[in-house]
Amino acid sequence: MNAARKLRPKRAVAKPRGAAKDGATVQPLFQPNMLVANADIASSTLTRIRHDHSVISETRYLNCLFSETNFEGSSFQGCGFDGCVVENASLRGVELRNCDVEGLVIDGINVGELLKQLTGR
């Protein structure tokens, strides 16, 4: 065996979700009923994450994908979602207040432009 071959790092073995080195269960980074403040999350994919009944404040999501993510009963204050995509999610009962919706597209409809035309702002 040559020296170069000995120095190669071992490949990481994928562990089942929630598994730790010692076999204990690891809690997911995001879970229900949490407070998230002053976070910067960029170019991430958040799939099947439960944010429900959480308060998210002054947090910036940049170019993220939210897929099958639950935001039921959550509050977002001073957050940014520039370049994000939300798919396969329920937005029932969602209320946007004092938000910049320029470029907001829902199912192919540019809601930001539509609101601009309706309100003249």
Describe it.
The chain has a single domain, classed as E3 ubiquitin-protein ligase SopA (Pectate Lyase C-like), CATH 2.160.20.80. Helix content is 11%, strand content 23%. The protein has two helices and ten strands. The protein has a three-stranded parallel sheet, with no helix packed on it. A three-stranded parallel sheet has the order 3-6-8, with no helix packed on it. The chain has a two-stranded parallel ribbon with strand order 2-5. Strand 9 and strand 10 form a beta hairpin. It starts with a helix and ends with a helix.
Question: What's this model, at a glance?
Answer:
This protein is an alpha/beta fold and 121 residues long.
